[in-house]
Amino acid sequence: MMIVFSDLDGTFLTSRKQIPARNLEALGALAAEGIPFVPCSGRALTGILQSILEHPATRYAISTNGAVVTDIKTGKALRRADLGQERALDLFEIARCHDVTFDIFANGRIYTRRDVFDRFNGFVSDTLLLASMRAMRTPYDGDTAELLRTLDHIERVSLYWRDPADRDALLAEIKRVPDVSCVRSYPTNFEISDARATKGAALAWLCNHLGIPLDEAVSFGDNLNDVSMIEKAGTGVAMENAEPEIKAIADAITLTNDEGGVGEFILQRLAGNR
Known about the structure:
The protein is 37% helix and 23% strand. By secondary structure, the protein is an alpha/beta fold. The strands form 3 sheets. It has a 6-stranded mixed beta sheet. A hairpin with a 4-residue loop joins strand 4 and strand 5 (76-80). 45% of the residues are buried. The model has no long low-confidence stretch (mean pLDDT 96).
């Protein structure tokens, strides 16, 4: 049985964060065939578009770069690979010495200290991405360390940097934190999770949970946080707009995200299977 996993930003969604018509057509075709569609995103669960979560083709979602696998119908987290308080606090101590943001992904939401939230435009130049980031985040006042100690499921943290010197120093310090994965989905960010929290690991877990061979999995991605799921799936598909590293390991390359490349590949695959 075929199963489809897709990244969202830069992959399933257009540059304007919308679902192209070809992708909507493909979702309908998957639902008609009883083939599961699994959004597999760096976004927190609350940041995934409701129109995707509520679509008949979608039963499961992988969020926060693989930290959580959720059964959409029941709302239950089937698998968790939390970063946790201790390592989040260690990372905050590293981050506070640099001019960076510090976003906390916890319990399906994203928390950002208000003074950082108010100056996001100093870290992100893409106006569409900036608007999306602000819409998905909950600003808070007060001490970050105190907030971290109140959160029970800290899934990951993300840092946006401006100065390459901060980037290089952060990378060196992050490597000293035990058992973490550090990837990126934007040229000036780091996304830090538990080492088990990768999209590829979540994809493999869900396939095993559902009894679907990995060879039957098709995955789509465009950026470095998608590497593991492109490698893990039987068919890993890179977008035409993908990073060179993704194209180099993909089994196939489809059209860009703005051209509905995910939908085009799915519909052609379904037509070929008939």
